[in-house]
Amino acid sequence: MFAILLPFDILSLILAGDFLSQTFLTTGQQSVILHVEYKLLSTQEESYMQQISDYELELMKIIWAKGGTAMYAEIAAALEAKGTPWTKNTIVTLLSRLTAKGYLNTHKTGFRNQYTAAVSVMDYQENETISLLDKLYEGNAKGLVSMLVQKDLISPKDYEELREHWDESEVHNE
Q1: C-alpha triplet 51, 52, 54: angle, nearest 5°
Q2: Distance separating alpha carbons of residues 107 and 156, to the nearest angstrom
Q3: Nearest 5°: phi and psi at 132?
Q4: Which of 4, 43, 59, 167 is most buried, by CB atoms within 10 Å?
Q5: Which string of b and e fits 14-51 if b means at least 16 CB within 10 Å?
Q6: pTM summary value
Q7: pLDDT by residue (tens digit) across 80-134?
Q8: Residue 81 CA to chain centroid, in angstroms?
Q9: Do residues 117 and 103 make contact, with C-beta atoms less than 8 angstroms apart?
Q10: Distance (Å, whole) CA 58 – CA 24
Q11: What 3-state class would DSSP assign to 4?
């Protein structure tokens, strides 16, 4: 993408933070942006969530189970109750990574941090399901369902409930 901008325009872009990296060539009164990588401006355009590790997911499950918000002490206590006590440094590091990846928001309460889920359980499950479908079945849900049926991972009762759900969906879509 090439654009001719005045120095003031470049400063405005930098202050607005509308790009991740840039290369500028300045000539007199005009500046040419040779390379600009724009941030996604809306979450609707962002269909990609960064992958998280199993340990990070464990922390997210604890936070989701607590209504989407938890303090460090609550997280540590929940890990202890599960029989998986981690060191404080491990927990804090994983929480920092989740915050950097956009899964958590952090709010200071005195000297303590309150962690709030920025991604809902449903959004995470949807993203992971689509990722699994794309990775293993090239987006073909029929292949996934077929495998679940063949390996008896879906009971006949589950299958009938799904069938009823699909039949109801067809009625509502007509």
Answers
A1: 135
A2: 47
A3: -60, -45
A4: 59
A5: eeeeeeeeeeeeeeeeebebeebeeeeeeeeeeeebee
A6: 0.66
A7: 999 988 999 999 999 999 999 999 999 998 999 999 999 999 999 999 999 999 9
A8: 27
A9: yes
A10: 44
A11: strand
